[in-house]
Amino acid sequence: MKDERLFRLYKLHKVDARLIDIKNRAEHLDLGKKEAAFAKKLQEENADALARHKDLKSEIEELKVKNEQTEGKIAKFNKDLYDGTIVSAKEVENLQKEIAMLEDLAISNALRIEELENELAPLSQSVKTVMAQVEELKKRIVKKRADAEVLHKELQAAFKETGAQRGPLESEVEPELITVYNQVRKKTGGTGMALVTEAKRCAACGIDIPEKVRDAIQSGRTQQCESCRRILFIHKEAEE
Question: Which of 209, 188, 220 is nearest to 17 (CA)?
Answer without folding.
Answer: 188
